[in-house]
Amino acid sequence: MSKNNNIMMLGFPRSGNNWLRYIIESIYNTKTCTFGNEYHSLSTRGPLSNVCNIQNKKDAMFSYCYHLHLFDIKRNYSDLKNIENMIFITRNPFESVLRHHFIDKIENQEKINLSELMFYLRDDQNSWINHLKYFDEFCGKKTILKYDKLIDLKNNQDELEKLSNFFLQFDNQDVNKIKDNELNFINNLEIMKENSKKSYNINNKTYSQKYSNYFSLLPKRDREQIRKSFLEDSGSLLDKYDIIV
Question: Most CB contacts within 10 A, which of 5, 83, 137, 236?
Answer without folding.
Answer: 83
